[in-house]
Amino acid sequence: MSGWWRYIGIGLFGLMTLLAGSGAHADIRLSAEGRQKALALLPELVAAVPADAHLRMTELEAKLAQTAAPKGRAELLKELIFHAIDIAEAAPLAKYTAEARTLAPKIRDKELLLYADLGQATWLSLEGQPIDAKTLILKTRETAQKQGDTTGVFFADAVMAIIGPDLGNFLEGLSTMAQGALTLPDTPRGNRMRMLAYLTLAYTYTSVDEIDPIVDYYSKALALAEKDHIAFDRESALFNLASVLNDLEETELAKKCYLALQKVIDQTQRVQGRYYVLYGLAWIAYDQGDYKEAIRLSTDALDHFASDPAFDTSLFDLTAMSYARLGDVANARRYFEKSQAYYESHQDVRAKRPDAEGLLTRAYIQRAEGKTEDAFKTLDAARRAQNKSQYERFKNSVTDLRSSLETMLAKQRAEQELKKARADYDRLIVIFSVLTALGALMLLVMQRRHTRALRRSMQEAEIANQSKSEFLANMSHELRTPLNAILGFSEMMAQHVFGKLGARQYDEYIGHIHDSGRHLLDIINDILDLSKVESGRLTLREEEIDIAPVFDDVKTLLAQRASERGVNLETEIGRDLPLLKADRRLIKQILINLLTNSVKFTDAGGTVLMRARLDEKGGIRLMINDTGLGMTKKELEIALTPFGQAGTTTTRSHEGTGLGLPLVKSLVELHGGQLIIQSVKGQGTTVTAVFPADRTVGYKAA
Fold first, then answer.
1. Where are the domains of the chain?
2. What single DSSP character describes residue 696?
3. Helices (H) then strands (E): counts for the chain
4. In the CATH hierarchy, which fold is given to the domain comprising 542-695?
5. What is the per-residue DSSP string for 382-399?
6. C-alpha closest to that of 75 among 62, 54, 60, 59
7. Which one, 150, 308, 340, 500, has least CB within 10 Å?
8. Secondary structure (DSSP) of 257-315
9. Is the pTM here over 0.70, yes or no?
10. 353-385 per-position pLDDT tens digit
C-alpha cells in the first residue's frame, strides 16, 4: 500500500514544515460539511470487512493454491494482480506477474499478459525505477490500442496515474480517470476499472488537501465495492484521509482516522500495518513541536517493522530534523546520512525529488551546530533549487490552464447551439400544422436527428468540462505550493531568520522576489476562482453587509498604489443606503479588481471615484468611475474574454493576464446581478455592478 502514499510522506514534508507559518495552507479550511462527511465515512470503512482488499487477497491466494486448470489460474491471477496494484505491495506483484508472463503465451490470453505487464510496471515503480515503469506502461498501452481493447487502454492510463507522483506529475492521466468514471461500461471488468478510477481520483485530491472530493470518491468506491464485490483497500483510504486532515491542521480528526486504521489492522491481523499508524502519529507530533515524541514514534516504526524504503527515508528525514531541533547534532547527521544513502542508490527517485528537501534538513543541522552563516547559504541554495524546479512547472501549467478554459468556452458554445436547436424545433412544430403531413414529418425527423447530435456534443463537452474542473482543482497544488515556497523563503530572508543577508542591496532584491511571487499567486487565484464559478463549485457565504466599511477597507488597500501613481481616490455613498445580502469576501474581491484596473489605467493627476447608491428599482449599484485611458467597443469585448487584454503585446504597458473583468462579471452574476461597462477611448471608464432589489435588507438609521 505504500506506493500510493509515497509523495504524501516524502514529496512535500520539508517544504510544508518550513512554510507552516507562511500560509502554505492558509487559504484552505475544513468546512463543517466536510468534517461531517469525514466522520460519517470512518465507521463505514471500519465496518466494511467483507470488502477488505487484504482479506480478499488471502482468499484468492487460497483458491489459486487449489486450482490447477490454466484458464482458472489465469482468472485468479488477473484479480490478484489487480488488487496487488491497488494496494501497491511489491512481493505479491513480483510473484504473480512472473507466473502470468509464463502462462499468458501458453493459453494465448492477451488480457492476462496486459495485467502482467502493468503489474510489472507497478513493481518497477515501487522498487525506485519510475522511468523504466513509464516506458513499459506506454508500450503496453500502445499494444492494447492496436488490439482495440479500450478497457485495457484505460487500465494502462490508470496505472500511469498511480505512478504519476513518482514521476513528479500529480496530474498524469487525471482527465482519463474523470471521464472513465462516467463512461466505463457497467460490466464486471468495467466496474473494476471504475473502482480504480475512483481510488486514483481520491488519491490525486490528497495532493491538494481537498477533503470533500476525497471523501466523495472514497464513498463511491466503497459503495461500488459492496455492490459488485470488488475488493477495496481500506487502509489506503484511512491513511490518506488522516494525512490530508493533518495537513489541514485538523489534528484530532486525523488521530481518529489513525485510530480507525488501527481497528482495520486488528480486523485483518496485518501487524505490518501498524507501521503506518506510527508513521502518521510521528508527523503529527513533529508538527505540534513534540520532537521527542516524534523521535520515539518514528524509531519504533523503523526498528520493529519492515516497509517501503521511501517511507523509511521520510522517517529518517523526520528524525534528523527532530534531533536537529533538539540540538543533538550527532544523531541528526546519522539519520540524515541514511536518507541520503537511499537517494544515492535510487537515481530515478532522486531525479524527481526536489533538491530543496535535503538542503532544508541540512540547514537545520547546520543551525544546530551554530553555523548560522553556512545554514543561511544552504537555505539560499534550497530557495534557488526550489525556484528553478518550479519555474518550468509553472510555465507548463499556465499553458494547460489556457487549454482547460478553452474547453469551458467550447461547452458554453455547445449549450448555445443546443438552445438554438430547441428554438428551431419549436418553430417546426408550428410549420407541421401548416405543411402537409409527409413534408412536416420529414423535417421533424431531420431536426430531431440534429438535436440528438447536438445533445451528444453537449454531453461530450460536459465530460471534458468535468475533466477541466478536476484538472484545475489539482493545479491549486501544482501552482500555489511553489509560489508559497517563494513567498515563504523570501519572508524568512527578509526577517533574517538565519542572520543578516550581507550586502544592503539584497534586502531590496528580497522585496522584489516577494512582490513578484505575490503577483503570480494573485493571478493564479483569479484563474482558479473563475474556474470554480464557471463549474458551479463556488458557493456564496451570504451575510448582511454595510457597504461603507467595505469601501474603506478597499480604499486603504489601494491607497499606496494610487499615491505612487499620482491618482486621487474618492468615495461617495448614498444617504441611507440599505444593507446588501452577499458574500463579503467576493464583494471585496469585485471592488479590489475594479479599483486596481482603474488605478492601473489612469495617468498621474487623474481621479478614481467609488460610488454606492440605491437605484430606482430598489437595488444597490456599486460604481467605479475613472478618468483613465478608456476602451473602444472592440477592446471592451476583448477585455471581457478570459485572458483577453486590450491593445497588442507591443503597445500594452500594463501587466496582467486579462482575467480581472471576466472574474468580476462572473462573481456579480453569481449574486444574481449584472455588470454594466461604459467606456470612451481617451476619456475614462465607468463600471457598475448592479445587485437586484431582493438583495437589499432594509435601511440603516440616518
1. 403-535, 542-695
2. B
3. 27, 7
4. Heat Shock Protein 90 (3.30.565)
5. HHHHHHHHHHHHHHHHHH
6. 60
7. 500
8. HHHHHHHHHHHHT-GGGHHHHHHHHHHHHHHTT-HHHHHHHHHHHHHH----HHHHHHH
9. no
10. 556 567 777 777 888 888 877 777 777 676 666
